[in-house]
Q: What sequence folds into this?
């Protein structure tokens, strides 16, 4: 048994000056003011956060999860995520000519994983999207929703399809929502021009979340609030939100936080394989993508295409810039996702009986160390061994 000393242990409701006590099986015994077993004094001045959970990302540190048939790339990405403080994740595919094969690779990666941020399942971002709201995804890979296609993707995932986004206004979309939600898939509203009534109908049919809220969807208007108004007003909906302050401006995030209960907010990154790599221009699959020093990733036409910032950095955006209480901001990047994904009894917070998945964070917002089940699995010095050395060949400027 070990007890980790910190003046700033972040629980579900408080910041505690005390000890995080972990047993030999890697479970949390308690957060208390007195230690048990071997004391660990290395982190007294640092934050202890629960391991973060990213419910929607596509790559990290040169590794790709979304446009690959190679499960090893996905597994390398999961291991690299530990460096950023993410201990569990839901890798996401995108509309592409190999989308079915990508789903199969994500399923294999989950089942073969032995280390890294735990792959909880997979998220399908597409292909049933409105081409007018494509974001940076090529529209030639979008498809009309049908039950046969939905079943093919569901079966390819081998029971690991946790969530899927789609545009509910498309013909056939409501049938897909009803079918997959009945099978336990968390259906999301995404890349859509739906009006208010269409959105409410989708929620009634089984949709449970809004994918990267306010991005790639019809904007709020005072005569027809549309999908953006509906996902703000309806309390049944979880709101994925990118808090890099690039995808969504701070005042819009503040509006969301005033409109919805804090436990309905799912922070996500939409990270790309460029995230965590040096700033510059990269040519990937024939497309120039630019990673700016701010973390903004754009295509040549200026379209925002994923985020180059980490989930931990975005947590501190909420703490430092929007002045959210630390436990609330941290929960939006950990506990809320655990609840949404039905993993809250096991991960997502520093509470008695849960896995001792936690991270050590300094005042410079860096993840110094990452623990899973009470074992240190990554240190800040490990970056060089975790990044994909081959990725730099894509850098053109």
A:
């Amino acid at each position: 048994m070990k007890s980790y000393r910190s003046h700033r242990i972040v629980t579900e409701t408080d910041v505690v000056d005390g000890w995080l006590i972990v047993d030999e099986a890697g479970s949390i015994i308690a957060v208390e003011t007195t230690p048990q077993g071997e004391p660990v004094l290395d982190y007294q001045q640092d934050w202890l956060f629960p391991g973060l959970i990213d419910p929607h990302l596509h790559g990290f540190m040169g590794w790709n999860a979304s446009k690959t048939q190679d499960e090893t790339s996905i597994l390398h990405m999961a291991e690299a995520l530990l460096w950023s403080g993410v201990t569990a994740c839901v890798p996401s595919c995108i509309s592409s000519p190999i989308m079915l094969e990508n789903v199969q690779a994500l399923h294999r990666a989950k089942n073969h994983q032995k280390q890294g941020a735990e792959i909880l399942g997979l998220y399908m971002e597409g292909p049933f999207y409105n081409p007018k709201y494509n974001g940076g995804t090529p529209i030639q890979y979008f498809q009309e929703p049908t039950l046969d296609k939905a079943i093919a993707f569901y079966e390819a995932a081998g029971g690991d399809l946790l969530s899927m986004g789609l545009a509910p206004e498309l013909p056939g979309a409501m049938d897909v929502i009803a079918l997959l939600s009945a099978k336990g898939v968390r259906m999301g509203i995404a890349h859509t021009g739906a009006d208010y009534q269409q959105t409410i109908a989708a929620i009634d049919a089984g949709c449970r979340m809004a994918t990267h809220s306010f991005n790639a969807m019809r904007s709020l208007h005072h005569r027809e609030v549309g999908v953006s108004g509906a996902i703000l007003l309806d309390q049944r909906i979880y709101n994925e939100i990118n808090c890099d302050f690039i995808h969504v401006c701070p005042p819009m995030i503040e509006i969301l936080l005033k409109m919805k209960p804090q436990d309905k907010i799912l922070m996500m990154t939409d990270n790309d394989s460029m995230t965590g790599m040096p700033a510059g221009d990269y040519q990937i699959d024939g497309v120039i993508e630019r990673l700016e020093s701010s973390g903004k990733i754009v295509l040549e036409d200026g379209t925002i295409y994923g985020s180059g910032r980490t989930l931990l950095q975005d947590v501190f955006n909420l703490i430092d810039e929007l002045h959210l209480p630390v436990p609330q901001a941290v929960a939006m990047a950990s506990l809320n996702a655990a609840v949404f994904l039905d993993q809250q009894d096991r991960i997502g917070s520093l509470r008695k009986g849960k896995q001792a998945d936690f991270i050590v964070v300094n005042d410079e917002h860096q993840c110094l160390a990452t623990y899973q089940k009470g074992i240190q699995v990554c240190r800040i010095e490990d970056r060089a061994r975790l990044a994909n050395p081959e990725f730099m060949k894509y850098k053109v400027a």
Observations:
- The CA atoms of residues 233 and 259 lie 7 Å apart.
- The chain is about 25% helix and 25% strand.
- Residues 99-112 form the longest helix (14 residues).
